[in-house]
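Dear colleagues,

For the upcoming journal club I promised to circulate an example of a predicted protein-ligand complex. I picked one with FE2/S2 (inorganic) cluster because it came up in last month's discussion. The inputs are reproduced below in full, followed by the predicted structure.
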Amino acid sequence: MYTDKVMEHFRNPRNMGEISDADGIGTVGNPVCGDMMTIYIKVKDNNITDIKFKTFGCGAAIATSSMVTELAKGKTLEEALKITRGDVADALEGLPPIKMHCSNLAADALHAAIEDYNKKRKAEKEVKT
Ligand code: FES
């Protein structure tokens, strides 16, 4: 039911873990299946220099988390915000239709981490001015 690419990322997830001094953190959950995903980012000069994920979920959720971190690493924040659920599924050479919602979590968690970073940066600026 899964492509080789999905299985490979599931068995060998990239960038799994936590960043203790992350610049942005995004957590999303799917109320239907109960799966949860957190993405941590480090940002320098508007680029995502490091990214990690922690996922409590199905195999597809782990594979999509792993893939979204690979897609976003080294990208600018604007480029990373453009990564869609479809991009994640395409990069994994497809997901079974019943598992497409798992790729939503990955893109949504990435976007939430970037929004968190932007919010914190805005708050810092306001404190300084
Ligand atoms: Fe819920 Fe995959 S079954 S994220």
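Two points we might discuss: DSSP finds five helices and three strands in the chain. The beta strands are 24-29, 36-44, 47-56.

See you all on Thursday,
B. R.
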